[in-house]
Structure formats: C-alpha cells, structure tokens
Amino acid sequence: MERLPRVTLGRGVQTPGLGCSHRSSSICLRWEEEKKEDGVKWTQLEHRGPYFAPVYEPLPDDVRFYYDGKPLKLSLATEEIATFYAKMLDHEYTTKEIFQNNFFNDWRKEMTSDEQKIIKDLDKCDFREIHKYFVDKSEARKALSKEEKQKLKEEADKIQEEYGYCILDGHREKIGNFKTEPPGLFRGRGDHPKMGMLKKRIMPEDVVINCSKDSKIPEPPEGHKWKEVRFDNTVTWLASWTENIQNTLKYIMLNPSSKLKGEKDWQKYEVARRLKDVVHKIRAQYRIDWKSKEMKKRQRAVALYFIDKLALRAGNEKEEGETADTVGCCSLRVEHIRLHPQLDGQEHVVEFDFLGKDSIRYYNKVSVEKMVFKNLQLFMKNKDPSDDLFDRLNTSILNRHLQSLMDGLSAKVFRTYNASITLQEQLKALTNSEDNVAGKLLSYNRANRAVAILCNHQRSTPKTFEKSMQNLQAKIDAKKQQVEEAQEELKKAEDEFEDTKDAKAEANVEKKKKLLKRLEEQLAKLNVQATDKEENKQIALGTSKLNYLDPRISIAWCKKFGVPIEKIYNKTQREKFAWAIDMADEDFEF
Question: Where are the transmembrane segments (predicted)?
C-alpha cells in the first residue's frame, strides 16, 4: 500500500485500498475459513486510526453569554463548555440539581482566574442566546436544499471511505465507531451521580493504536503523536483510550457485520443453546442445595435461582471509578428486598427495589418458592439494612460454580438463554398465521416486550411521545372519516345498482368495495401502530433484540410466517446478523 499523507484533526483525504464494497454473495464461506490457533484473532490488521472530533469554532460576536444580566465575553475553553450546557437547555437533564452542580463544578475548573472571580452562581448565568443560536443552526440544516444535503453526505461518505474500513487478513472490513466521541457533558442513564460532568476532548496523545507489525502504521494528525503503538493480535480492537468520567477504556472496534464479530455472536448463542441440554439438571441441583447444611451453598443456590428466573445480573460488575450505588444479585443488601408472606392474593412474595446497571431502577414483586422465601428470612436474620444479603457469596465464587456446571456458563449466558427461550415460546403462543403483516409484527413486538420486561430494559417515555401520538391519532381520525365516506359511497353505488341492474353500476360497486377494503386495512394498520407505540413507550426493545436474542429465532419466524426480515431488522442489523440470515431456515429451534 502506498504511503499515505498526514491529516489534520477532523479532516482527511482519500485512502487507497480501503474503500467500501458490496457484501459478497459467498458470505457463508467467511464462517468456514480456517480457524487460527487459540487466542490469535488475526495475522494482518491495517487501518488509518481514529477520526478526531473537529476543533471548536467560536461563537459569532453577536451571540453572547450573560452573567447577572450583563454580557460577558468568555475565554475560548470556557465558551466551548458553556455551549455544551446551552445546547441542553430544553432537556430534562438541565433541570436536575445533580447535573447542574456537576456541570458548574467542572466548568469553573476550566475557567480563567478572572472568570472564576466573576462567575460564582449558575442561577445568574444566562445561556438563552447561545441556545437560540444552536436551535436556529439546527433548523437551518434541516432547511438545506436537496443539493446542499447531498454535498454534506458526500463529505461524510469521503470520511467513511478513508477512516471507516480496515484490511483484516486480506478482507476489507467495516469499522464500527471510527470517530472519537466529541467533548460534551456526561449524561448517564437513570439518576447517575456523575451526570453533568465534563467529558474532555480526546487527543492523539490519549490514544493507543493496535495494528500488525508489517502494516503501514497510521500517522497521527500533524503536530501530535500517539500514546503508544501495539502489535497485539490476541485482541480485536484497533485503537483505545481512557475516558475521564468513569476512567474506563473505550475502543474502536470492527463493525458488527465483520467476520470476527459475527463469529463471536454466533458462538455466544451456541453456548446459550448448550445450556438447554443441562438446565434441568442445574435447576434440580439448586433446589437440593436450598436445604444444604452449608450456608454458602444455600446462598449460592438462591442467588442462582434469581439469576435463572428473574434474569438478574450477577453484580460486582462496577467499572473502575464508578460511584453510583448500583448492585446485582450477589451484591444485594438487606435493604433491597422486603418479604411478604402474602401480598395481592399471592404467597411468599419478594419485593425487590434497587438500582441496577446504568443506575436503572429494578422494581419487582415476585412470588417465589416456599424454600426460597424461608432461606431469605434466614439470610436476613439479625442483619442491618446495609448488610449484604448474600454475605457468603461474591461473583467469583458464583462464576467458578457456574463454570463447574457447564464450560463457558455465566450469569450472562443464563440471561441470553432465558431471553431467547422466552422469545421463542411467546412467538409460538402469540402469532396467528391468519393475521396480516401488521398484526404479526404486533405479536412479534409483544413477544419481544416480554423479554425486555424480563431483562428490565426500561427507557424514559420519549420527549416526542405525546406529539407523535397526537399525530398518529390525527391520521387515525382522518382515516376513519375516509372509511365512513367510502361506506356511504358504497351504499349509494349498491342502491344505484339495485335500481338499474346495469353492468356499469355493478362494476362501480366492486370498485367501491375494493376501495373500502383498502381503507379499512389502512385503518387497522394505524390502530395496530398506536397500540404498539403505547405499549412500548417505556420499554427498550432494541437492547434485548440486539444483545440477548438469538437472531435465528426471529429470522426463522419471518421465513415461516412470510414477514419480510427488513420489518424486524434494519439494514445495519441485517449486516450484523448476516451469519444468522445465511444459516437459519423456518424450522430453526433455539
């Protein structure tokens, strides 16, 4: 490959040999290529490194920041951070005290000493003019002509061509997230204690590059150097850096559609499928262990029951530097559960209430088996609310036990297994082969929702939900009006035919019937959309669909019931699951 020129931050030139190409029709062969020795992921890896966020462009002179009612010219670094907050003025985050406090503390650290002397109170800061500037800018982008939008697309495509592909063992493979995340304010999920903190700009000096020794090593932007260059063929990432909020590593990885990612996905679901053959033995054993003389075994057995039946995460999985009080199964405390001998007509009810991964609240009332309930009473005896529920257990102990039950078994494998089995069973129970495609899709989303509820995949009701429902309702009302009018037209046509018995009048009746049928189908489809939208407003269907559900189940269902695959998976997802589309027929069973 010829030597490539240097690039500046946020800019690039065409890269020979790394352009896009259509997916080969012989994709199946990719999964059948010779396997490498254990641990080795590739022998050749060549790429251009990350595409860095563009440098900050200062605000125009007529767009001002005000403090205590007076305009105040900010230094460049202070102004840039002010724009991060200004852009979010219409978002719920900026109403939260913890977000405001974290932002203001971090912002003041970046101010000049003169600015720190003046700006001491966030309530006296007026970002409205800056906010309006970015709203207007956004509206102007939306109003661009078709030609102008095409020009922007071509520029983006050029960057994708240069940075978005690598050469991996002779294959041109797409890279997933080839851009570094721009600086901004950390949001986090749920009520994350670090929300509002400043995400700093990633520089080449923060980045570790990984490639093969014999490749052309990517050149850093002019005037910069990489933190390190590695030649590690036992990992699949191309570049990495540590972000400053959670102090966690971030990676540039291959696109999900790549061979390595596809193989990893396939193997993940095959491990979960193997659990199907031994899960009855595992369940039988943990029931026996509920009565064990060893407290450690009892606790392990109850925890495993929760992981199996409630798809709880194992716990103790916090990232370094994470301060949120999040827990999983093994790290539950006494205060996180309440026991009810009877509740709402059910016996032996456990009420869970804790913050799980990403500070998402897990709240559930579950009727459990009598021995589980009795054991929980025993585990809680003489303990304070802040004491560990499972004081003889941690994730290491649990994972060693799971490995002894089946090679490769983990809490996540249980989660994947139960999610996939639930989807398969729900699809069988809910799908009516006589339904039209819209009706079948409603059944699919209901099956998917059962999985999302099992896995506690929640989301806040989207900001645009009410407006979007109003728009949909307006369409439904308009369609109902059209149906009523079509019914009247049909009645008139039938009356005319009764009077005349004319062939032309008879043809008109048939025409009106077809029109009415088409309008009624359209109305039914809109009603299904409204039901689907309402039922899913606080459920995140995408997480389980992309990470926990064997895609072969969905593809087999599509093939069996004549539903186009693109109705379930978009283009990117179809590329990610290309291996499954090639493998699964309509008779596939998880």
Answer: none
| Residue type at 488 in one-letter notation | E
Burial state string for 79-117 with b = 16 or more CB within 10 A and e = fewer than 16: bbbbbbbbbbbeeebbeeebbbebbbebbeeebeeebee
Token pair listed for 233: 């063929």
Residues 201 and 341 in one domain: no
For residue 115, the model assigns a pLDDT of: 95
Residues 240 and 301 in one domain: no
117: Cα separation from own chain's centroid: 42
pLDDT beneath 50, residues of the chain: 1-29, 319-322
Which residues constitute the domain of residue 139? 65-146
Please list, in sequence order, all residues whose beta carbon lies within 8 angstroms of the beta carbon of residue 261, skipping any fewer than 6 positions away: 236, 253, 254, 255, 576
Residue with tokens 């016996």, as numbered in its chain: 347
pTM, rounded to two decimals: 0.60
Q: Which two tokens stand for residue 398?
A: 């649990």
E-state strands within 53-131: 66-67, 70-71, 125-126
- The helix/strand/coil state of 353 is strand
CA-nearest of 327, 333, 326, 328 to 376 is: 333
The Cα–Cα gap between 561 and 276 comes to 25
Please report which helix (H) or strand (E) contains residue 354, including its range.
strand 346-355
Backbone φ and ψ of 494, nearest 5°: -65, -40
- Which pLDDT does position 1 carry in this prediction? 34
Task: Give the per-residue pLDDT at 8.
Answer: 33
Residue 239, both tokens: 């570049």
* Domain identity same for 112 and 207: no
In angstroms, what CA-CA distances link 403 with 216, 305, 330, 396?
42, 16, 16, 11
Provide the 10 A C-beta neighbour count for residue 392: 14
Tell me how far apart the alpha carbons of residues 62 and 298 are, in angstroms, rounded to a whole number: 69
Whether 49 and 104 map to the same domain: the answer is no
Burial of 196 (0-12, 13-18, 19+ CB in 10 A): buried
By CB atoms closer than 10 A (0-12, 13-18, 19+), residue 214 is exposed
- Tally of CA atoms within 13 A in the half-sphere of 588 that contains its CB: 24
Pairwise CA distance, residues 124 & 169, whole Å = 58
CA distances from 273 to 277, 402, 444, 552 (A): 8, 15, 21, 12
> Catalytic residue positions?
548
Bridge partners for 51 per DSSP: 179
Q: What would you measure as the largest C-alpha separation in the chain, in angstroms?
A: 94
Q: What's the gap between Cα 147 and its chain centre? A: 33
Tell me, what's the pLDDT at 463?
67
DSSP 17-63: T----PPPTTTHHHHTSPPPSTT---S-EE---PBPPPPPPPPPTTS
Residues 441 and 494 in one domain: yes
State residue 184 phi and psi, 5-degree precision. Answer: 175, -160
Q: What is the pLDDT of residue 16?
A: 32
CA distance 350 to 305: 13
Phi, psi values for residue 311, rounded to 5° = 55, 35
- The per-residue pLDDT for 469 is 77
Last residue of a domain, one of 256, 282, 306: 256
